[in-house]
Amino acid sequence: MAKIIASKNGTKKDVIIKKAAFLFRKKGFTGTSMRELAENIGVEASSLYNHIGSKSELLQNICFKVANDFTVQLNETEKATTDTKTKLENLIRFHIHMMLDLYDEVFVANHEWKQLEEPFLSNFLIQRKLYESRMIEIVKSGIRKKELKNIHPHVAVFTILSAVRGLELWQRHKKNITIKELETNMINQLLNGISK
Amino acid sequence: MAKIIASKNGTKKDVIIKKAAFLFRKKGFTGTSMRELAENIGVEASSLYNHIGSKSELLQNICFKVANDFTVQLNETEKATTDTKTKLENLIRFHIHMMLDLYDEVFVANHEWKQLEEPFLSNFLIQRKLYESRMIEIVKSGIRKKELKNIHPHVAVFTILSAVRGLELWQRHKKNITIKELETNMINQLLNGISK
DNA sequence: TTACAAAACTAACACTTATTAGTTTTTTAA
DNA sequence: TTAAAAAACTAATAAGTGTTAGTTTTGTAA
After folding, report:
1. Which one of A164, A169, A173, A177 would you mutate to disrupt binding with B, by most B Cβ within 10 Å of its Cβ?
2. B97-145 per-position pLDDT tens digit
3. Are residue A87 and residue A153 in the same domain, yes or no?
4. How many alpha carbons fall within 13 Å on the CB side of residue B119?
């Protein structure tokens, strides 16, 4: 009888979620079966249900964990009394680190949220929309305070968000560059274009 | 008896592929069933097989059509005898237009290629890798000719590719900005950061 | 009108899906 | 050592999957 071994700091449910994130990223949510997930853990599919409620619940856990992490960081950044450029730099840095530390989870939140069921789908979209709006506000305020060029705030924010999201593509090249290099280069390229 | 109405410039197969691209984008490849696709066209699932070979074949058609379009444009750009900045500007412009004209298809090629079966999966990845390498070469040559700052070529290319890919997110905001504005803003933000 | 091909239909196939019920094993605590 | 709880198992369910076979309808051209 195989067993799900709970990791040092995490329940067995956490072990299942972690492996689910890995598989959902690699094969998609609908492309991953519970039997496949179970096999990867070393257990029968039905045994999973001693620890989790449903397949859907796994996706919810992953998506909202990520959304929450980003929201918490945004809260702190907004409170900080720094100039706009530093605020943006902090956010970009956080995105980069999230992508490196929680690659599978962030990827799944970015790509598989569509498979969420209501009301989770709506909630997720609202939370994301709010995040974007608040970031746009930061840029707008930077423009008003003449800390940023007179760029289109929407375009600026989406270009930044897209670029950091693109770190997904980057995973393959990890070896050829250090994280510090990557961070510096990307922030330079993204900010020096918009900061006065 | 419902019928698949062939569009002006396209076979019935083309109609099926178009609707497939739409659904694959919205619900994912594995998340879309042939019965669902058929219903959206107004026909029984089995009727589709008078026009197509398999579900897989639909995905192949979509992915390689997109990959080909990009490769053709890259060929032309490489041949052109312009400076590096103009070359990059042309490529970015093409990406933007592809995203606007063939939104569903580009999205599917970006996100659902994982569901391709061998040998198509390998072929697709090779073609994509090649595209990236050739774009990196353009940047490298621009650095050598001192037309670009001494940035990290990989990071630069991936930041650009990610940013244009981010136009996916942008679809929702179409109304608030013209395409020309979007184009100008994005190219400015992406290039003025790296051009001397 | 008749003959032929294209393209629709119904029905079924074999297989996979998430999940549940009921049972047995393992772990925990007294 | 024993009793209770946790977590594994086997087996089965009902629903959904892509696809095929065989048949009927539709459109086209002689």
Report:
1. A169
2. 898 899 999 999 999 999 999 999 999 999 999 999 999 999 999 989 8
3. yes
4. 3
What pLDDT shows up at residue A5?
66
CATH of the domain at B21: 1.10.10.60
Q: What is the pLDDT of residues B151-162, one digit of tens each?
A: 888 888 888 888
Whether A87 and A181 map to the same domain: the answer is yes
Tell if A46 CB is < 7 Å from nucleic strand C.
Answer: yes
CA distance A185 to chain B (A): 7
Which among B28, B30, B166 has the least Cβ separation from residue A162? B166
A5: in domain: no
Q: How many structural domains comprise chain B?
A: 2
Distance CA A195, CA A150 (A): 10
The reply to whether B65 and B138 lie within a common domain is: yes
Note whether B30 contacts A: Cβ–Cβ < 8 A: yes
Give the tokens for residue A122. 């709506």
For B121, counting Cβ atoms within 10 Å of its Cβ (0-12 exposed, 13-18 middle, 19+ buried), the class is: middle
Find and list the nucleotides of strand C having atoms within 7 Å of a protein beta carbon. 6-12, 16-22, 25-27
Q: B31 is in which domain, residue-wise? A: 12-50
Q: Are residues B25 and B98 in the same domain?
A: no
- A157 interfacial to chain B (CB closer than 8 Å): no
B74 contacts chain A (CB < 8 A): no
Region at B100 (left for phi over 0; alpha for psi -120 to 50; beta for the rest): alpha
Whether residue B81 lies inside any domain: the answer is yes
- For residue A168, the Cα-to-chain-centroid distance in whole angstroms is 10
Question: Mapping DSSP to helix (H, G, I), strand (E, B) and coil, where does residue B148 land?
Answer: strand
Q: What is the pLDDT of residue B5?
A: 66
Decide if B185 touches A, using CB distance below 8 A: yes
Structure letter (DSSP) for residue B150: S
Contact across the interface for A185 and B114, Cβ inside 8 Å = no
Residues B166, A182: C-beta atoms closer than 8 Å: no
* Same domain flag for A44 and A59: no
Give the side-chain half-sphere CA count within 13 A for B45: 8
Q: Are residues B73 and B96 in the same domain?
A: yes
Q: What is the CATH number of the domain that holds A130?
A: 1.10.357.10
Considering only A91-105, A177-191, B28-42, which range has the smallest mean pLDDT? A177-191
Any domain includes B2:
no
According to the model, what pLDDT value does residue B168 have? 81
Question: Within this chain, do residues B87 and B169 fall inside the same structural domain, yes or no?
Answer: yes
In a domain, A85, yes or no: yes
For B183, which residue in chain A has the nearest alpha carbon?
A155
